[in-house]
Amino acid sequence: MQLVLPDDPRLLAESILVLLSDPGLCVVLGRQGRQFVEERFSWTAIVEQLRQYVGQDLGVIRNAHSHVLR
Is 57 domain-assigned? Predict the structure, then answer.
């Protein structure tokens, strides 16, 4: 990961030059970035997060309905 402090154009330029001079590093960082995004923001990840969220809430709702219907 290549982090650059805000408002430091010299450091940003140096980081860009490092990336331009090292295509292998660009490939590694690109793969890591894609993996990060897919793990957190792909449709599969979003659906799983929603299932967990809804599943927690439905547990309470199911219990409430089971008492009402008995």
Answer: yes
pLDDT, one tens digit for every residue, the chain (70 residues): 778 998 999 999 999 999 999 999 999 999 999 999 999 999 999 999 898 888 775 555 555 555 555 5
Residue 63 lies in a domain: yes
Residue 1 placed within a domain: no
Cβ–Cβ < 8 Å for 15, 2 = yes
pTM of the model as a whole: 0.60
DSSP annotation of 47? H
CA 22 to CA 17: how far, in whole Å?
9
